[in-house]
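As the next step, I selected for study a record pairing a protein sequence with its C-alpha cells, which the following lines show:
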Amino acid sequence: MTSEPHSEWLTAAEAAAYVKVKPRSLLLWVRQGKVKAYALSGTKRRVWRLRKEDLDAALLASPVVPSEPLTVLSERGIF
C-alpha cells in the first residue's frame, strides 16, 4: 500500500501567515493567477483554500532578480 504525501489545506488567512503577507495581498495574487487556489462555494463571498505545496511552488517559480543600484541625484549632475 503506497501512501500519497499528505497535502495540508490552508485558509487564506493561514496561507498568508505562512508566506508572511497580508491576506488581501495573497488573494490578489490568486486573482492574478500567480498562486493556485481552490474556491469553495460560499453564500455571500468566495471561500478559498490553498495548499502549502502550491504556495511553495509559486514562491520558488519567480525568484527576485537584482536590479541596478539607485544613483544619488548629485551623481547624475542634477544638483
Q: What stands out?
A: Helices lie at 12-19, 23-32, 52-61. The first strand starts at residue 9 and ends at 11. Residues 64 and 70 are 17 Å apart (CA to CA). Residues 9-61 form one domain.
